Amino acid sequence: MTGWTAFAEHLKAELANLPLGARVIVFEPQPARIRRFVQFARDEDVLSAQLIGDRYLDENRRPTPAGYQAITAGGWNQPDVDNGHLWWVDFDEPVTTEDCRRAAELAVTGLRDGYTITGPTELVYDAWSDRAGHPALDLPTLGLNRQPMQ
User: Fold this and answer.
1) Nearest one of 122, 108, 149 to 15, comparing CA atoms
2) From CA 83, how far away is CA 1, in angstroms rounded?
3) Would you state the torsion angle of the CA atoms of residues 40, 41, 44, 46, taken in this order, to the nearest 10 degrees?
4) What is the pLDDT of residue 2?
5) Predicted TM-score of the model (pTM)
6) 39 burial class (0-12, 13-18, 19+ CB within 10 angstroms)?
7) How far is CA 146 from each of CA 24, 28, 51, 53, 126, rounded to the nearest angstrom?
8) Are residues 1 and 119 in contact, defined by beta-carbon separation less than 8 angstroms?
9) Contact, 49 vs 89, CB < 8 A?
Protein backbone atom coordinates (compact mmCIF):
# COMPACT_ATOMS: atom_id res chain seq x y z
CA MET A 1 0.00 0.00 0.00
CA THR A 2 1.37 3.39 -0.90
CA GLY A 3 -0.92 6.06 0.46
CA TRP A 4 -3.99 7.20 2.31
CA THR A 5 -6.33 6.85 -0.69
CA ALA A 6 -5.48 3.17 -1.12
CA PHE A 7 -5.71 2.64 2.64
CA ALA A 8 -9.21 4.16 2.72
CA GLU A 9 -10.36 1.89 -0.13
CA HIS A 10 -8.92 -1.20 1.52
CA LEU A 11 -10.35 -0.27 4.93
CA LYS A 12 -13.78 0.29 3.37
CA ALA A 13 -13.66 -3.19 1.84
CA GLU A 14 -12.66 -4.81 5.13
CA LEU A 15 -15.31 -2.91 7.12
CA ALA A 16 -17.99 -4.01 4.65
CA ASN A 17 -17.09 -7.66 5.27
CA LEU A 18 -16.70 -7.64 9.05
CA PRO A 19 -18.65 -10.34 10.84
CA LEU A 20 -20.88 -9.45 13.77
CA GLY A 21 -18.80 -9.14 16.91
CA ALA A 22 -15.69 -7.98 15.04
CA ARG A 23 -13.27 -5.58 16.68
CA VAL A 24 -10.58 -3.81 14.64
CA ILE A 25 -7.94 -1.39 15.81
CA VAL A 26 -5.47 0.43 13.54
CA PHE A 27 -2.63 1.98 15.51
CA GLU A 28 0.94 3.19 15.71
CA PRO A 29 3.17 0.30 16.82
CA GLN A 30 5.30 2.66 18.91
CA PRO A 31 5.54 4.30 21.37
CA ALA A 32 3.74 2.00 23.77
CA ARG A 33 1.06 3.51 26.04
CA ILE A 34 0.62 6.67 23.96
CA ARG A 35 -0.25 5.18 20.58
CA ARG A 36 -2.68 7.03 18.40
CA PHE A 37 -5.39 4.81 16.95
CA VAL A 38 -8.77 4.39 15.33
CA GLN A 39 -10.97 1.43 16.18
CA PHE A 40 -14.15 -0.17 14.91
CA ALA A 41 -16.76 -2.46 16.44
CA ARG A 42 -19.34 -4.33 14.34
CA ASP A 43 -22.41 -5.29 16.31
CA GLU A 44 -25.95 -6.36 15.39
CA ASP A 45 -27.33 -2.85 15.32
CA VAL A 46 -24.33 -0.63 14.61
CA LEU A 47 -20.86 -0.12 13.18
CA SER A 48 -19.03 2.07 15.69
CA ALA A 49 -15.90 4.07 14.93
CA GLN A 50 -13.73 5.63 17.63
CA LEU A 51 -10.59 7.77 17.50
CA ILE A 52 -8.27 8.24 20.46
CA GLY A 53 -8.96 11.34 22.53
CA ASP A 54 -6.78 13.69 24.55
CA ARG A 55 -7.40 11.95 27.85
CA TYR A 56 -5.01 9.16 26.86
CA LEU A 57 -2.29 11.17 25.14
CA ASP A 58 0.62 13.26 26.32
CA GLU A 59 0.26 16.87 25.23
CA ASN A 60 2.91 16.53 22.52
CA ARG A 61 0.93 13.65 20.92
CA ARG A 62 -2.35 15.59 20.72
CA PRO A 63 -3.67 17.39 17.65
CA THR A 64 -2.74 20.97 16.90
CA PRO A 65 -5.58 23.51 16.71
CA ALA A 66 -5.75 22.80 12.96
CA GLY A 67 -5.86 19.07 13.74
CA TYR A 68 -8.82 19.51 16.08
CA GLN A 69 -10.56 21.52 13.38
CA ALA A 70 -9.94 18.76 10.83
CA ILE A 71 -11.33 16.10 13.18
CA THR A 72 -14.52 18.02 13.97
CA ALA A 73 -15.02 19.27 10.40
CA GLY A 74 -14.52 15.70 9.19
CA GLY A 75 -17.56 14.60 11.15
CA TRP A 76 -16.26 13.06 14.37
CA ASN A 77 -18.41 13.63 17.47
CA GLN A 78 -16.70 15.16 20.49
CA PRO A 79 -15.26 12.74 23.08
CA ASP A 80 -17.61 11.99 25.96
CA VAL A 81 -17.94 9.68 28.94
CA ASP A 82 -20.31 7.29 27.14
CA ASN A 83 -17.67 6.68 24.46
CA GLY A 84 -14.69 6.29 26.75
CA HIS A 85 -13.48 9.86 26.15
CA LEU A 86 -12.85 8.97 22.51
CA TRP A 87 -13.98 10.77 19.36
CA TRP A 88 -16.82 8.70 17.93
CA VAL A 89 -19.33 8.07 15.13
CA ASP A 90 -22.00 5.36 14.97
CA PHE A 91 -23.50 3.97 11.77
CA ASP A 92 -26.84 2.33 12.56
CA GLU A 93 -28.23 -0.76 10.84
CA PRO A 94 -28.52 -1.39 8.06
CA VAL A 95 -24.82 -0.58 7.62
CA THR A 96 -24.29 0.23 3.94
CA THR A 97 -21.26 0.35 1.67
CA GLU A 98 -21.56 4.14 1.85
CA ASP A 99 -21.37 3.94 5.66
CA CYS A 100 -18.20 1.85 5.37
CA ARG A 101 -16.72 4.36 2.92
CA ARG A 102 -17.57 7.19 5.32
CA ALA A 103 -16.07 5.31 8.29
CA ALA A 104 -12.85 4.77 6.31
CA GLU A 105 -12.75 8.46 5.37
CA LEU A 106 -13.20 9.41 9.02
CA ALA A 107 -10.28 7.16 9.95
CA VAL A 108 -8.05 8.88 7.40
CA THR A 109 -9.20 12.34 8.48
CA GLY A 110 -8.49 11.55 12.12
CA LEU A 111 -5.12 9.90 11.67
CA ARG A 112 -3.72 11.95 8.77
CA ASP A 113 -5.29 15.38 9.23
CA GLY A 114 -5.97 15.33 12.96
CA TYR A 115 -2.89 13.54 14.27
CA THR A 116 -0.56 14.27 11.31
CA ILE A 117 0.48 10.65 10.84
CA THR A 118 2.44 10.75 7.60
CA GLY A 119 1.10 7.60 5.99
CA PRO A 120 -0.51 4.23 6.60
CA THR A 121 2.88 2.52 6.36
CA GLU A 122 3.43 3.86 9.90
CA LEU A 123 0.46 1.80 11.16
CA VAL A 124 -0.35 -1.79 12.11
CA TYR A 125 -3.62 -3.46 13.03
CA ASP A 126 -5.19 -6.00 15.32
CA ALA A 127 -8.58 -7.63 14.78
CA TRP A 128 -10.61 -10.26 16.60
CA SER A 129 -14.13 -11.39 17.32
CA ASP A 130 -15.73 -10.86 20.70
CA ARG A 131 -17.65 -14.10 20.15
CA ALA A 132 -16.78 -17.37 21.93
CA GLY A 133 -13.04 -17.94 22.07
CA HIS A 134 -12.22 -14.45 20.76
CA PRO A 135 -10.72 -15.74 17.51
CA ALA A 136 -8.32 -13.52 15.61
CA LEU A 137 -9.55 -12.01 12.35
CA ASP A 138 -7.27 -11.58 9.35
CA LEU A 139 -7.77 -8.48 7.22
CA PRO A 140 -5.51 -9.17 4.22
CA THR A 141 -6.97 -6.45 2.02
CA LEU A 142 -6.00 -3.81 4.58
CA GLY A 143 -2.35 -4.06 3.55
CA LEU A 144 -0.98 -3.53 7.07
CA ASN A 145 1.06 -5.81 9.28
CA ARG A 146 -0.83 -7.46 12.08
CA GLN A 147 0.40 -6.88 15.63
CA PRO A 148 -1.32 -7.46 18.96
CA MET A 149 -1.95 -4.20 20.80
CA GLN A 150 -0.72 -4.69 24.33
Assistant:
1) 108
2) 31
3) -50
4) 66
5) 0.95
6) buried
7) 11, 11, 19, 23, 6
8) no
9) yes
